[in-house]
Automatic annotation (TrEMBL):
Its EC number is 4.3.1.12. The lineage of its organism: Bacteria, Pseudomonadati, Pseudomonadota, Alphaproteobacteria, Hyphomicrobiales. This is Ornithine cyclodeaminase protein. It comes from Rhizobium gallicum bv. gallicum R602sp. One of its GO terms (biological process) is carboxylic acid metabolic process. InterPro entries: NAD(P)-bd_dom_sf (IPR036291), ODC_Mu_crystall (IPR003462), ODC_N (IPR023401).
Length: 319
């Protein structure tokens, strides 16, 4: 390959991050020697609408690779028929600082987020989980249903969204991929029968009630990334065994964790494990067939770095 900086657009990024390989790359990074400073999180005023958010997420593996992702989240883009999230990933050499690649951050984020949920579900969802409910119709939804079907024998996929047309669109896209998906309009009914409920929304109010979850269900919460955002209620916290991607991130940024901690519904010691502990085997995941499990993810910079390295090495054949 010619020398020079690699640039991967959305389609190229997608092609270099197949689910099985990406899930394994993230698992390896969780137990590897990645350095991950606390990410920068800034509110940005947008006149006449809800504030936007700027996220800067650095991480590095000493001597190998360093990277940073810049992401903007503009909730008001829904009214403009634009994606809420835009981002770019910059990958550099961890030995020299040389810029190696610029990778589409939106596609990287969507795929690594879904792959991380699937990695968690490997330890937390029942092995025979066959019915999946995906809540949300944004970019994450199609990725979530693909990632979960990569690690569990999913036979039925239901998609719910506030916009029924959006749910129908995602279901049609899933069917084009050969997946048995259909839009649903009664979120409670769908949640009551689901083996896995995966939420990827920007909701500030609970969508899933804990009372709806059947014994053995796994609840995957990936949308909320601020203390003010919430996708489930206190009853879900009370009924479930709670797991997080990282304690540092979830206890600071995730409303589904921060709010119950603040009210006393949840205490820090009741968080069973973070993802690195599950992957390393130092703490266990699901322990009983009828146990309800809950996984809250806010995203970790090491996940992006793992995906960026995989994409770069897939194209260049480098190590």
């Amino acid at each position: 390959m010619e020398t020079g900086m690699l640039v991967l657009d959305e389609a190229q990024t997608r092609a270099t991050l197949p689910w099985a390989e990406l899930i394994e790359a993230i698992a390896a990074m969780f137990v590897g020697g990645c350095v991950m400073p606390v990410r920068h999180h800034h509110d940005m005023h947008v006149p006449g609408e809800e504030n936007a958010t700027l996220l800067l997420m650095p991480a590095w593996v000493p001597g190998r690779y360093a990277g940073v992702k810049m992401v903007s989240v503009f909730p008001g883009n829904a009214k403009r028929a634009l994606p809420a999230i835009f981002g770019t990933y910059l990958l550099s050499s961890g030995a020299t600082g040389e810029m190696l690649a610029v990778i589409d951050g939106g596609e990287l984020t969507a795929r690594r987020t879904a792959a991380t949920s699937a990695l968690a579900a490997r330890y937390l969802a029942r092995p025979d989980a066959a019915e999946l409910l995906v809540c949300g119709t944004g970019r994450l939804s199609l990725n979530l249903l693909q990632a979960h079907t990569a690690i569990r024998p999913i036979k039925r996929i239901h998609i719910w969204g506030r916009n029924p047309a959006g749910a129908e669109k995602v279901a049609a896209e899933a069917r084009e991929l050969g997946l048995a998906a259909e839009a649903v309009f009664d979120i409670e009914a769908a949640a009551r029968t689901a083996d896995i409920v995966s939420c990827g929304t920007l909701s500030s109010e609970p969508l899933i009630c804990g009372a709806w979850l059947k014994p053995g269900a796994h609840l995957d919460l990936v949308g909320g990334f601020k203390p003010s955002m919430r996708e489930t209620d206190d009853e879900a916290i009370r009924r479930a065994s709670v797991f997080v991607d990282t304690r540092a991130g979830a206890m600071k940024e995730a409303g589904d964790i921060v709010q119950p901690l603040g009210s006393g519904v949840l205490n820090e010691g009741a968080i069973k494990a973070e993802l690195a502990e599950l992957v390393c085997g130092t703490r266990g995941g699901r322990s009983a067939e009828g146990e309800i499990t809950l996984f809250k993810s806010v995203g970790a910079a090491l996940e992006d770095l793992a995906g960026a390295i995989l994409a770069y090495e897939t194209v260049t054949g480098g190590k």
